[in-house]
Input
Amino acid sequence: MIQIADIREWRTHDVVDAGGQKIGVLEAVYVDTSTDEPAMATVQVGLPTRRHLVFVPLAGALVGPGYVKVDYDRSLVKKCPSIGTDDVLPAEDEAAVFAHYGLPYKPGANGERQLARR
Output
């Protein structure tokens, strides 16, 4: 399990897929609000003048010198619903991120978000 304190040190480092292909740069870590464990990261992708953030699950991620390797293919990650580099994921769009990866979405009992930025 990757600890939140550890992964914060990897901001601005490369995020690569299982085959070692660069996806983008780690921007932020999001935790599961029910467990407070790291669940997803945002990755900055795109051209220098048209950057945006995509989400990628951290389950099974490995940290190496200067990179974080995720279990998802680069093409799948880049097709994930995205947000602008200064935007926040709207609560109503959160389920779409989980659906993109075929993961179950479990909001809180009172409709609270499943993800929180740390």
